[in-house]
Specification:
With 465 residues, the chain is an alpha+beta fold. It is 29% helix and 22% strand. The chain has 13 helices and 24 strands. It has helices at residues 2-11, 59-76, 87-99, 104-116, 128-135, 163-167, 183-193, 200-212, 269-278, 297-304, 362-372, 432-437, 441-451, and strands at residues 124-126, 138-141, 144-149, 152-158, 174-178, 181-182, 219-225, 231-237, 239-242, 247-251, 257-261, 285-288, 309-313, 316-318, 325-327, 332-335, 340-344, 351-355, 377-380, 388-389, 394-395, 401-403, 407-410, 426-427. The strands form 8 sheets. The chain has a 6-stranded mixed sheet with strand order 10-11-12-18-19-24, sandwiched between helices. Strands 6-5-7-8 form a 4-stranded antiparallel sheet. A 3-stranded antiparallel sheet has the order 1-22-21. β5 and β6 (181-182) form a beta hairpin. α2 packs antiparallel against α3 (87-99).
């Protein structure tokens, strides 16, 4: 095994493409942060390209970037039917639009829109600036978030370090105007112009991001309506925020354990397991995954096994070839098609999992697995509906990054979460009045459900049983 690990480590020092047999899925090479190079090196799916130096992209780099993105998705996408999309026709449609984009921002946006034709949020192209933010766990925002609630665009969260907070914006206010235009009209236009997603939740999230995000220090002139009908007008500055993942835990006043996880990051695995161990004697447990967009599937399995005794069948994985994802001539199985988890029985009490429309990917994988095995109740809103997997970003000529779905996920009963979302056992819709009162009705409903929950099922459920 030591010799094998040395061989794999040496693989990344070979010329690009030289390790195709050892690393057929380009997993190792995707972990390398390529140094800037100009002009960009042409790429293949097995040999991600080094990005060009920052600046205006020339025609050669644009062509290389387009070809790399289109070809990689064509050859690597987990579904050979491409979700029923004619991918060759998509390429023919978008090639002139992408290559003739008026500036670099439009170039990267159009390249991402081409990927969006698959109606899959995991398959996407990040511009160099967005890629740098992602790698630094940072984001640029106006400092608040909102959701459509009926005819209103309701403010749901306000960052206390943002201009929005200090201007007086609070949850429960209604976004009324953007640059003097009715906010609903602006949002409707962004909703129509956003790249494709497979669910309404995804399309809404893309539209809200389009309004809130932008370049650091850019501003937006906004108007909000308070509960009493008065207006608050403010010009807010987009700020760089730290979005480092975190896990927190505590005991609620009634003794119920509470854990909030913001991302399934491997850097948090030890802390998450320690939180579970610290609450193992709690009479009931709430795991809050609201706003958690996903992360490591391995971490999901490491956490899920703490709630069962004996062997547990996890959700089935679907790949392009119908074979596991491997390294080193198949000697190292990175992703199994049918994972089986060995339960530890660390936590034996009833569990509730909190979800909202921003809970995606690994969060949906964990919630759906626990729900299907009847080990937890899901409380809140229908989740994102974006449960696919990828093994890491690939460098794109010009400095961008490409993510492409390599793994599909199927529950033991054959259902998929992708495109539908996890449906709560206890649905709790968002309400404007609750936001204004700072009332967490979802947590309240979870605690109430746990109080009347029957003895939990610690052994795995079998399909059809």
């Amino acid at each position: 095994m030591t010799r094998l690990l040395r061989t794999l480590a040496a693989c990344v020092t070979l010329p690009l493409g030289g390790c195709a047999a050892l690393d057929p899925h380009a997993i190792l090479t995707r972990q390398i942060v390529a140094a800037p190079a100009a002009p960009a090196t042409p790429a293949t799916p097995d040999a991600p390209a080094a990005p060009a130096a920052p600046g205006t992209l020339d025609a050669v780099t644009r062509q290389a970037a387009f070809d790399h993105v289109w070809r990689t998705i064509d050859q690597r996408y987990y579904d050979p039917t491409m979700n029923g999309v004619d991918w060759k026709a998509v390429g023919a449609k978008w090639r002139p639009l992408v290559l003739e984009a008026p500036d670099d921002a439009a170039f990267w946006d159009r390249l991402d829109r081409m990927a969006g034709e698959l109606r899959d949020l995991h398959t996407r192209v990040e511009s160099p600036s967005r890629a740098r933010l992602f790698e630094a766990s940072k984001s640029v925002s106006l400092g608040f978030d909102f959701r459509p609630l009926g005819d209103a665009l309701a403010v749901t969260i306000v960052d206390p370090e943002s201009d929005a907070w200090w201007a007086g914006v609070r949850p429960g206010m209604v976004l009324a105007a953007v640059e003097g235009e009715p906010a609903q009209a602006v949002f409707g236009r962004l909703r129509a112009e956003a790249r494709d997603g497979s669910t309404e939740q995804q399309r809404v999230r893309l539209a809200t991001r389009g309004l809130l995000a932008g370049e650091p220090d850019s501003t937006a002139r906004l108007a909000f309506e308070r509960a009493d009908g008065t207006r608050l007008e403010a010009t807010l500055r987009r700020t760089l925020f730290n979005r480092a993942p975190r896990v927190t835990h505590r005991r609620l006043p009634d003794g119920t354990g509470y854990i909030r996880l913001t991302e399934w990051s491997e850097s948090l695995r030890r802390q998450m397991l320690a939180a579970l161990a610290g609450l193992k004697d709690a009479p009931a447990l709430v795991i809050d995954l609201r706003g958690n967009g996903g992360g490591s599937g391995d971490m999901v399995h490491a956490v899920a096994r703490q709630f069962f005794e004996g062997a547990v069948t996890a959700s089935r994985v679907v790949t392009r070839t119908g074979k596991p994802i491997t390294l080193a001539f198949g000697l190292v199985e990175v992703v199994k098609l049918q994972p089986v988890l060995e339960g530890t029985g660390l936590y034996k009490g009833p569990v509730a999992i909190l979800l909202d429309d921003a809970s995606g990917s690994a969060s949906e994988g964990f919630a759906s697995l626990m729900q299907w095995h009847q080990r937890a109740q899901v409380v809140g809103q229908v989740s994102c509906g974006c449960l696919l997997g990828f093994m890491g970003y690939a460098a794109v000529p010009g400095g961008g990054r490409l993510a492409y779905s390599e793994l599909g996920v199927v529950l033991p009963d054959g259902r998929r979460v992708e495109g539908t979302g996890v449906v709560p056992d206890v649905p709790v819709p968002l309400a404007l009045d609750d936001l204004r009162l700072s009332r967490d009705r979802t947590l309240e409903a979870a605690v109430a459900a746990l109080a009347r929950a029957p003895a939990p099922r610690l052994t795995a459920r079998v399909a059809g049983g």
